[in-house]
Amino acid sequence: MVRALNLGFPRMGANRDLKKLVEAHWAGKIDEQALIDGAAKIRAAHWKIQADAGIAAGQIPSNDFAFYDQMLDHIALFQVTPARYRDVAAKAGASVNELKTYFAMGRGHQNKDLGIDVPALEMKKWFDTNYHYMVPEFEANQTFSLASFVKPVAEFKEAKALGITTRPVIVGPITFLHLGKWARAANKESAAPASRLALLDALLPVYESLLQQLKEAGAESVQIDEPILTLDLPTEEYKPAYDRVYSRLGGILPILLASYFGRYGENLDRIVKGLKIQTLHADLVRAPEELDALVAFAKDAHVGLSLGLIDGRNIWKADLAAAKATVEKVLGQGLPADQLFVSPSCSLLHSPHSLAAEEKMNPVIKNWLAFAVEKLDEVVLLAKSLAPDTPSPEVQAALAQNRAANQDRAASKLIRNDQVQARMADLKDDLFNRAAPYPVRAKEQADKLKLPLFPTTTIGSLPQTKEIRMSRLKLKKGEMTEQAYDEFIGQEILGCIKKQEEWGLDVLVHGECERNDMVEYFGERLDGYVFSQNGWVQSYGSRCVKPPIIFGDVSRPKAMTVRWSKYAAERTEKPMKGMLTGPVTMLQWSFVRNDQPRKLTTYQLALAIRDEVVDLETAGIACIQIDEPAIREGLPLRRSDWATYLEWASAAFRLSAAGVQNATQIHSHFCYSDFNDIFPTIQSLDADVITIENSRSDLKLLKAFEQYGYQAGIGPGIYDIHSPRVPSVEEMKERVDAMLVFLKKELLWLNPDCGLKTRGWAETEAALKNLCTVARQCREAATA
Ligand code: MET
Ligand SMILES: [Zn+2]
Q1: Is the complex ipTM more than 0.95?
Q2: Which fold has domain 438-783?
Q3: Which residue among 226, 233, 389, 559 sits deepest, i.e. has the most Cβ atoms within 10 Å of its Cβ?
Q4: 353-367 confidence digits (pLDDT tens)
Q5: pLDDT in tens, 631-652
Q6: Which residue has the least CA distance to atom 3 on ligand 1?
Q7: What CATH number should be reported for the domain whose range is 3-411?
Q8: Does residue 752 line the site of ligand 1, with CB under 6 A?
Q9: What φ, ψ does residue 113 adopt, rounded to 5°?
Q10: Where in the chain is the domain with CATH 3.20.20.210?
Q11: Distance 627 CA to ligand 1 centre (A)
């Protein structure tokens, strides 16, 4: 029998129960015991869902739960807690225990009375997902030991007491070390060994005793996640390390080794081959082309295969007939059925919980979708459909339903828009390029805009006050008329303009107060998008995002932003920037179609934005900003795949921007990541002005501008907007002076790092006044 297996279940619960629980605890509304009890209830419910779906004993994961993050769980479990957090406990005395220390690492800890102020550990994106993990920090002489509370063992026993045998999930030691970093002190003294794998000697015994304890508790196997096996790895160094780890751990318990989000590629032969494992999991949604190599490998190594055929990263119903054919092909190649599993492509952590709560969604489209709970049903149904005896009538009916839903989707008029198709079939080269090269445009823009040297601007959003959010809510609930809401927004915009004029900014913004979110706002105004009510996915800690769903050809039925931008532009003498979200960011922060390449969806988005850009220009807007903060995070995991992505991502941006005249100034904005490696792509976007996050005053970034001979306008953020701290004039001036070492003064713009919507007005006013003062000082110095 081919069996169904699950790698991980979303933690938040049907109604974001975990979020509510931990936030209530943080707010002091429930005590620690209530938190612990509440979490146990959530876990119990999730195990039950999986057992009820028909995932067999031993194939249901445990320890996939975390109060905050699974990497943070391992930091706590192996006692890698950095000293500064242990100090918190020491200073605060008995009131701080392990759980408080855990949350201190996750979100920082402040207690003025006790003089405690530690920021959170660094957080990074988990591979190419929108989930963020806490980065382990290692000292050069780092030691490891098991915490007194051994969470994986405790959760295994907890499930067992409920009558459910689980397979504990742990992050593998090499992935744990690889994703960590050296503590700063370790770095500075350069006492740290070159590679973090040097810590394996100290770490491996701890994993051994963890597996030993799991075995003693009755675990029959363990899932070890090593997702770095989908990355480019230095084989010479990593192969011996993997051999060592898995020969030792594989001797204790049978291992399901799981990597996901991409192909194993050369790592299959160079690293995985020869490892002492029982079963290998592969993501066949992301890397279907790898199937033959996997089968050959499995046969040769006498290893079982977990075929990740149900997409854990997207929300579409699987094509179960195709999945079944794939498994049958594998069976036909001589792999025994009892060594085969079917599974989601990765942990279902990245899927929303369940469709059950979607009462408002168009039922036709809802019928095309599967969230985590429904995906479990698919995995089980797939396994059942593969049983040697004739499937039961129920199974046959369910398979027929799956087929019908997929056929309905493929043939649906809802997903096709002939006008969009016609435009897509006629994407001439010149649509991707501005009429004239930058120097010509710059001249025309200078004549039109008459900006001073060191022009000042902001990134778009201004403080989203409680009042603004309340009004939006009232409008939604019908407690405020549209007219009253519009009047309110108009007044807010006026207020924003007055303030910016008074502070002396040069290129103004309307403040984006009418926007809930920079993707949702546009998604709601585009055809081809649908919104879920409850499709939340964990982003970090208790934070969840609800990505909109692109289900069909994207088009713009009417102008989306012109009304408020025009309104704003008409109320000032200064240039007013129009604000749009770029095509790549729209794609990246949505659930996207799986029936056409991402590139095509992005081009459709680009065409819709292009129309908006042109309409803004026609309405008299002379500066238009197209934000692309997510362009870097779309990068494929393997370097060899980068060029293809970067080429179409850049093309999509240019397609969205190139419809305007020379005198119209196109801005773009980038933040959240390190842009050094994709610098030539940023340059290739051919924007007239770019603003870019530079909060760590990264000299490397500035050097790149010099090295690549960047010639257009550039505003590397001169202050960090992520904290309420107001930077002084001197501090900002210093940063500008440092920039001027690398950048010509004619190119430099002065602006904050990113939008100001999360800030309050008081600090915004103080900081922007200082920024304008810096601009005046720079101008004086330049003309002196
Ligand atoms: C994450 S980038 C944000 C850009 C947007 N225009 C804003 O100012 O909020
Ligand atoms: Zn930003």
Answers
A1: yes
A2: TIM Barrel (3.20.20)
A3: 226
A4: 999 999 999 999 999
A5: 999 999 999 999 999 999 999 9
A6: 755
A7: 3.20.20.210
A8: no
A9: -60, -35
A10: 3-411, 438-783
A11: 7
